[in-house]
Design brief:
By secondary structure, this protein is mainly α. It is built from ten helices and no strands.
Length: about 170
Amino acid sequence: MSERDRFIGHLEALAKREDRGALANLRRGLGKPPGACAAMMPLIVPHLPEDRREHLAYFLVATLFALHPESARTGNMGTTFRRLGDNESAEKRFVALLDSHADELGARLRHAVSLARSKAEPINYRQLLDDVLGWDHPERVVQLAWARQYWRQTEVTEGPNNDNASAQGAA
């Protein structure tokens, strides 16, 4: 198990045992830089990786998890937004999220997680941590992966009750 998996597992354990105090302490750090909220320290610092460049992502994901502690095991934020429904408002938020510079990412993710919470849609926090860590990749691999999941074509299975298959056969 990777240290990232252990970290998310630690957060999930807080939610599973309904440790409201710990989750409240993590939420106090929303929108603040790492270390600005001392109440978060005992919950995060023991789980931080050696690479200090990754600390911001760990703090961010911990606060987002505390805001909406419902985890999914698969997908990414594109998957989450796709499940939120096909509406113009969600798509605009998603496009703004994809366009986010690293400096804006925390605030935009906070809005995205709040939207997912309002619709009771779980989030794959393991993937989110990896994605936040890879956000600045020069080839924008995270943004492309999210876009692929959001705008992917729904596979059509052919069968006797499938209107699309019937229409194709009649043509």
